[in-house]
Here is the input.
Amino acid sequence: VERAIGPRTRIVAVTAMSNVTGYMPPIDAIVERAHAVGAVVLLDGAQYVSHHPTDVAALGCDFLVFSGHKMCGPTGIGVLYGRMSALEEMDPFLFGGDMISRVTLDGAVWAHIPERFEGGTPNIAGAIGLGAAAEFLMSADPHAIVDHERRLSLKLRRALQEFDGLTVYGDTTDAPHGGIVSFNMDGLHPNDIGTLLDQQGIAVRTGFHCAQPFMDHFGITGTVRASFFLYNTEEEVDTFVHALQRVRDILG
Here is the structure.
């Protein structure tokens, strides 16, 4: 971070929780360093917000983005939070109804924030669904969700240590991380593992996870990713391990 952020840096974009490994970087230190050189900070909270208590003032970020479908909500809708002083410096890039207070032949006067950034007919059904999902998650104890997911992910990580020829990525149990476990098995393609797990009723994601530079860094073509949320159980971890043993038996 010290090397990457310098006097010419204007914006620092960083994930608050990796969607590949679940790792959570030291946001406080990154924000402090960025602000010290006059840069603004954009946090990708797609994985983070639905799994952890989120206080934008405490995080100190200038912008935070997250998506509905990662928090039990509908697809096709997300949120951009912006610090008011930062938003006031920005002009709209998307144009449509309800974003202006006055239009003339020579120009326009933008509406107040946030309407000026919401041009056109919004995703009404999606917004209602996202609101319901947010209320549902806020009614739960976010710290209990964190503890629950960490317990499940640690149980799976320990179980995977018993598999020969299996590599877990980002397996640093002392570092803060969420309920994500990504791994590969020697000689087996992640897609083949995912297909056989699917046939046993287990849903995982395989491939690059929209993080191809990460895969290039490790010289791999993708991983198998198991993710936990508040609805998963310890029994399902045992079921997953048993299913993975069958995959190894089938594919050798």
In short: Residues 142-160 form the longest helix (19 residues). The chain is about 35% helix and 20% strand. The chain has a mean pLDDT of 93.
